[in-house]
Amino acid sequence: MPTPPFTEYTARLTRELIHTLVAETDEARLAEHVAFIADKLAEAAARPQQVTVADPHRSAGHIPDDITPASSARNPIAPPMLIEWDGDESRCELTLPLQYQGPPGRVHGGIVATMLDHVLGNAANAGGRPRSYTRYLNVSYDAATPVGEPLVVVGRTARHDGRKRFMEGEILCHGEVRVRAEGLWIEPREGLGHRS
Q: What b-and-e string marks burial along 147-158, b requiring 16 or more CB atoms within 10 Å of the CB?
């Protein structure tokens, strides 16, 4: 189900507010920008059915009614990631703004792990396969993942073994592998239901 335009628009404005709060150090300019965003939110709230979004975010596909902090257009803490199927890989290209920083100039390691888990999960569940869930994810941080630089997050199935899907992937920046990951996704046993 696509995100309603009013919801996506207000989530985008909230992302802009979050970015302003972490990036702007001048209090007067911060106050001015916060007031600008507040006006935009009030205008949209007065006429929610009239709000449009010129370029609506497309769903990542593997999570119905996505509200995740990784790819949801309605979740203001999500970048949001747009994951696409490319050959035999799930792939996402994005640039993370300052609110995802951990150490100066670097994406927080937990955010890095979240992005990899999300892209590998997309690959594990691609092609109409029965749903599977992360059992473990091992992340190797080979080099810094920079904030404000174009990143490519890639995931693929290395092999299958019954209900098990062994996954691998990486994050690249300017063609250089910065982070590697490998993990195991498992389909629930028949009749045991799904984890959520």
A: beeebbbbbbbe
Indicate the SS3 state at residue 134: strand
d(CA 186, CA 6): 37
What is the crossing angle of helices 5-23 and 27-46, to 10°?
170
CB 168 within 8 A of CB 155: yes
Contact yes or no for 95/71 (Cβ under 8 A):
no
Q: pLDDT tens digit string along 132-157?
A: 999 999 999 999 999 999 999 999 99
For residue range 37-69, list pLDDT tens digits in order: 999 999 999 999 999 999 999 876 678 788 999
User: CA triplet 104, 78, 45: central angle to 5 degrees?
Assistant: 120
CA 111/CA 100 separation, integer angstroms: 7
Q: Say if CB 171 and CB 178 are below 8 A apart.
A: yes
Three-state DSSP at 107 gives strand
Cis peptide before 80 (omega within 30 of 0): yes
- Domain 83-186: give its CATH architecture: Roll (3.10)
Q: Write out the E strands in the chain.
A: 83-86, 89-95, 133-141, 150-161, 164-173, 176-186
Strands 164-173 and 133-141: unpaired
